[in-house]
Amino acid sequence: MSNSIDARELRNALSTFATGVTVVTCKDAEGNPVGATASSFNSVSMDPPLILWSITKSINSANAFINAKEFVINVLASDQMETSNGFARSGEDKFAGIDTEEGIGGVPMLKDCVTRFQCKTWATYDGGDHEIIVGEVVEMDSSDKEGLVFYRGAYAKPEKL
Q1: For position 35, which CATH number holds?
Q2: Which helix (H) or strand (E) holds 85?
Q3: Domain count within the chain
Q4: What range defines the domain where residue 107 resides?
Q5: pLDDT per residue over 78-119, tens digit each?
Q6: Which residue, of 26, 120, 153, 160, is most buried by count of CB atoms within 10 Å of its CB?
Q7: Which run of H or E residues covers position 87?
Q8: Can you list the pairs that 149-157 forms with residues at least 24 positions away whose Cβ atoms lie under 8 Å?
Q9: What pLDDT band is residue 2 in, cutting at 50, 70 and 90?
């Protein structure tokens, strides 16, 4: 059976669901730092503590994430839009000018984030044009900063009602 859902219409419909913005980091097989902006991040389980995120299979860094034993989910603060934009681009040194510190397995963690989840890869699953990566949270830290939000194709700040 052929699916008649238009990809652009689906993307527009999905953009009505406000999400936080993250930069996921890992190290590639040669030990080089790798990072990508992702808004596809969710909790899975409290016991054990599991999270998931997904990455487009066609981007250059996909294999590094799919094969990584550890990764860090860096939840961006509302003043980190440029960081998000930088890690969303391809073909440049994404870590240039970014303050980091070492996390699990030597994975770079971004400074000044709202929250950082250090994870061991639990499982990966095929998700069509994405790979779904599940991680076990082994350490985390959090601040009271305001998070960066993505809604209807644009950055936003959360507002309490």
Answers
A1: 2.30.110.10
A2: helix 81-88
A3: 1
A4: 19-143
A5: 999 999 999 999 877 899 999 999 999 999 999 999 999 999
A6: 26
A7: helix 81-88
A8: 149/18, 149/19, 149/20, 149/21, 149/78, 150/15, 150/18, 150/19, 150/20, 150/21, 150/39, 151/15, 151/16, 151/18, 151/19, 152/15, 152/16, 153/15, 155/21, 155/81, 155/84, 156/18, 157/78
A9: low
**pLDDT bracket for residue 1 (50, 70, 90):** very low
Q: Please report which helix (H) or strand (E) contains residue 51, including its range.
A: strand 50-56
In a domain, 124, yes or no: yes
Task: Give a yes or no: residue 2 inside a domain.
Answer: no
Q: How far apart are CA 23 and CA 55, in angstroms?
A: 11
Q: pTM to 2 decimals?
A: 0.94
The verdict on residue 81 lying in a domain is yes
